[in-house]
Amino acid sequence: MNILALGDVVGSIGCRFLRRHLPSLKKIKNIDLVVVNGENSADGNGLTPVSVQSLLDSGADVVTSGNHSFRRKESYDLYDSCEVLLRPANYPPAAPGRGYCVVDLGRTQVGVLNLMGVVYMESLESPFDAADRILAQGTPKITVVDFHAEATGEKRSFAWYLDGRVSAVFGTHTHVQTADECVLPGGTGYISDLGMTGPVNSVLGVRPELVIRKMRTKMPVRFAVADGDCCTCGAIFHIDDKTGKTLSVERLQIL
Question: What is the pTM of this model?
Answer without folding.
Answer: 0.96
